[in-house]
Amino acid sequence: SCKVEIEVPQTCSFIVRTTGCSLSEVVNMDAEGNPVLGPAPGSAAFAAEMERYPLKVVVEGAYDVKLYPEDGETTTILNIKRGIISALAVPLLQEEKNKNMPTIHGKCKTYYTVNAREDIATDISLNRDLSRCDKFVPMRDHTSPLALISGMHYPLAQLVRSSQTCNYKFDNEKKHMTYGTCTENHILIPFSHKGEYGVTNVGKQELTLVQVSPHNERVFDHSDIVMGLHMESVVDKSVVQDKDAGLNLLRELANLPETEGEKRAHLFHKLVTMVRGMKTETLSPAIPEALAVSRVLTYQVLAQCGTPEC
Among 151, 152, 158, 267, which is most buried by a count of CB atoms within 10 Å? Predict the structure, then answer.
């Protein structure tokens, strides 16, 4: 969770600050079976990264969103801020109901319904088929629990049904948003029943207006770095391209005595993580040696790895 401050120094120009952020994770279950949340490791570092730089945003015309991040902002943090801005984007209601709108997944055909109206529409729902957005490329995101599928060159978008529904409430008098929520639903079709139940991933964002205060600052200077609203893939620079380290780990796993079976899962996970970061020029020459160590383990690692290189 974060506190998001949006300053509006000029029309359609915004300065977004994200302060007081925290990361939580499930630490226990209560008597009713509900998850109990506690601070996640790295929460303080995450908060500092989110707060370090403001993000300047300019909307040109109706739907051209330009971001001006500061030099030094990481792609990971920028992607999280993109998600916040994406959730705040509401279509112009006087236009046709299936407008192509900018989102974190690129331009998406967006359908909307007005649920309540006073002088203005005060309750609006949106829905999108994310797999039809122009920058929705799940194939490169190696985060699927079914890594065998996530790395295939066949576009994963054909195997995953992804949708997003949002609901917004507006203040009739002051004409601004007071509440917004967006839910993304990703379902893996081959492992689903009737396209509904099975391997799913659900993400939900909630935005609640805390306060509005007048502000007289009119200065809006931005950096020369200009980016779009759609999410960018993150290159892991921490991965060491060392085939020998991978081969040594494979040998350790292959020679593990039965009495130390409890180490097997940890070593296998460590090996898969290492291989996932390898580029083709590191991985290719290692494969013949790996097959000589253990054919079975090598194929298991490659199947679990899930990157196009694997």
Answer: 151
